[in-house]
Amino acid sequence: MPDSENPATAVTFPPAFLWGAATSAYQIEGAVREDGRTPSIWDTFSHTPGKTAGGETGDIAVDHYHRYRDDVALMAELGLGAYRFSISWSRVQPTGRGPAVQKGLDFYRRLVDELLSKGIKPAVTLYHWDLPQELEDAGGWPERDTAYRFAEYAQIVGEALGDRVEQWITLNEPWCSAFLGYASGVHAPGRTDPVASLRAAHHLNLAHGLGASALRSAMPARNTVAVSLNSSVVRPLSQDPADLDAARRIDDLANGVFHGPMLHGAYPESLYVATASLTDWDFVLGGDLELINQPLDALGLNYYTPSLVSAADASAKAPRADGHGASDHSPWPAADDIAFHQTPGDRTEMGWTIDPTGLHELIMRYTREAPGLPLYITENGAAYDDKIDSDGRVHDPERVAYLHGHLSAVRRAIADGADVRGYYLWSLMDNFEWSYGYGKRFGAVYVDYATLERTPKTSARWYGRAARTGALPEAEAV
């Protein structure tokens, strides 16, 4: 019996397993007008009335730009072995073109040096959704040129930090960038054009391939290059052939559209067929698939909750229960005849069902999909309505239970033969949660948004103990 299913057996991890936490630039840095930084699409979007909860923005966020030393000291106190953060493209290359702003690069140099001085491995994500606004004004991700601009940016950052950062990720969750940004419009830049979203998906794939090549040309050979995908676990409502077909089509739009070209050098033929009413994919040029299909050193998987789908009447206008925000426009091109359903079980503050079996299923799928490719869980976590008690502490037993369940699923996958090398908790601390503003708290560290004081939650102490010992404490342990 796998150890995660036997309560009498400690859930222990391999000695080299990497225990980390993750953040992204726009969600934590603030300082949006300092040292040459210019607006990204998220600056513009969050300042547009009605786009974010309460009109909240990342202008200050949690002021990590000025407080990074304290934040790194807190990571070290908790016992983290790694920290995954993203670079703000518009802080480094404000127009998305041309030479770098050295003050922007210097911030990341200081951050990396601080991490290394505390024995924490830095992992850099080049793109976590914050395209420079000038590139969006020129057409954004639906335009091919944006992929080439990304490669230039990757070269700049690789040259600046490649001597001291070994773990690199090109893109974070390109599905969100393409389909929430350009189809449903619930993310920046807020466009609602399904054809543009498919073009954006292809050019994000191209950016990944070109960026991976640029990084390798700029860095020592020891460094690793990966991508982080929020691949969906898509389940049919029933075994009816129509529901099975619906699940396959959503799987193509959620997963195959990215892992097809990245891992196998081809889009699924069924994706072309399903979207033929929208486009003939003439934006895929000769040689593109070879450029995209760069060898990877690892694959990052982000997981929160599974999806449950069925066939439906295309004329029905019931709200989509897909967990991706409310919009009159679907993030699923050419899939209006597919319904999403709430999966049963307890839910987080995001309304997402808690289901660790989906993480195990996802890991095992990619163990088969890309045999021999090391895997990292680059995001996994939960939002809860955390409060500081009268003693100044934050108890979050629900998050501890969530982490225990999902980390146990990771360990079970390792026992089943998966090569999972590490886990990055989302998120290190409460922060700006995109269109939800500051209303959803994912952090293991509580942030008082009035004072910006940081307070480790029970989950932070629990996770730190796991990181130091390589074993999961009982879910009730503090």
From TrEMBL:
Keywords: Carbohydrate metabolism, Cellulose degradation, Glycosidase, Hydrolase, Polysaccharide degradation. GO terms for molecular function: beta-glucosidase activity. InterPro entries: GH, GH_1_N_CS, Glyco_hydro_1, Glyco_hydro_1_AS, Glyco_hydro_1_beta-glucosidase. It is an enzyme of class 3 (hydrolase). Its EC number is 3.2.1.21. The active site is at E379 (nucleophile). It catalyses: Hydrolysis of terminal, non-reducing beta-D-glucosyl residues with release of beta-D-glucose. Pfam families: Glyco_hydro_1. It comes from the Bacteria. Belongs to the glycosyl hydrolase 1 family. This is Beta-glucosidase. It comes from Streptomyces violaceochromogenes.
